[in-house]
Design goal:
Layout: H1 3-30, H2 40-43, E1 51-71, E2 80-86, E3 88-99, E4 104-124, E5 134-154, E6 161-176, E7 179-183, E8 189-192, E9 195-211, E10 216-231, E11 236-238, E12 248-265
Antiparallel strand pairs: 1-3, 1-12, 2-4, 3-4, 4-5, 5-6, 5-7, 6-9, 7-8, 8-11, 9-10, 10-12
């Protein structure tokens, strides 16, 4: 084929294809843009809101004894704790905070814990009264309140659900109601008076919140919280022998908490 013929064919092809190419480009302009990975379907229905908020919480605390020791006004041979047992209690809290951005918020909270049962079994050596070891049993109730400063990191938001982790530090006041002792082998029975102390408290938290609206969020989570060391009053028994020698118990306390709460945003610029 001659060079002139080849050029004629190419000219015919270009003349035929140009309108189709133009039509394709025009159709492409009519297509919607590709969806963003940060689309509202993933982020949820409500835009994150910065600003102040109020909160209220309720929950259930499973207390545990981290440590237990005793002091006496006179030596008690071979005294030791055989077992301790802590009960559970409900808790209520209120607080106020500020959400800085999509990932960080801070609040101050106060809470009250109802009474939880405490029990302990101990033993000591008294060869004059017991063949091997003498045994004692203690019973009391413990309640507490705390004021905490908390900071939270929020890990994105998907379908209106926002996971978070947090850390808290503050103080806790713990009260041991009158503690009773039932001592075997003729050592009598007695009671220690009510006693309260304020101690440092720390907490680690994890959970998630769910957006009911741009202002209202439901929050549920787990918290591990230390409550410091509670001290009983000095034990008085009749007769005042053995472990009743003005015994004072020091009980290190912690709690595994399950909580549900409500947060209400106070910002006026919410959509």
């Amino acid at each position: 084929m001659s060079k002139a013929a080849i050029m004629a064919v190419l000219a015919a092809l270009l003349a035929h294809g140009a309108p189709q190419l133009a039509g394709s480009a025009w159709a492409a302009d009519l297509l919607p843009p590709a969806p963003s990975l940060d689309s509202p379907a993933l982020r949820g229905r409500f835009a994150p809101e910065s600003g102040p908020y109020l909160r209220a919480d309720a929950g259930y605390g499973m207390l545990q004894t981290r440590s237990a020791t005793s002091t006496f006004s006179a030596p008690v041979m071979g005294f030791r704790y055989e077992a301790t047992d802590m009960g559970q209690s409900g808790l209520l809290g209120l607080g106020a905070g500020y959400r800085f951005n999509d990932y960080l918020r801070f609040d101050l909270s106060g809470e009250y814990r109802g009474s939880a049962s405490y029990g302990a079994r101990t033993s000591h050596v008294d060869l004059a009264s017991c063949a091997t070891r003498c045994a004692e049993a203690y019973a009391a109730s413990i309640r507490s309140g705390a004021v905490m400063a908390n900071v939270y990191g929020e890990i994105g938001s998907w379908f209106d659900v926002t996971p978070f982790v947090g850390f808290g530090a503050g103080v806790a006041q713990t009260t041991i109601a009158p503690m009773t002792i039932a001592a075997g082998n003729g050592h009598g029975a007695g009671e220690a008076p009510r006693a309260s102390q304020v101690r440092p408290s720390f907490a680690l938290m994890a959970g998630a919140s769910w957006d009911l609206s741009s202002k209202i969020k439901i929050e549920a989570g787990y918290r591990y919280m230390t409550l410091g060391t509670a001290r009983s009053g000095a034990m008085a028994c009749a007769p005042a022998t053995g472990p009743c020698a003005a015994q004072v118990q020091q009980i290190g306390l912690a709690s595994h908490d399950l909580r549900i709460g409500l947060r209400y945003g106070l910002s006026s610029d919410a959509p």
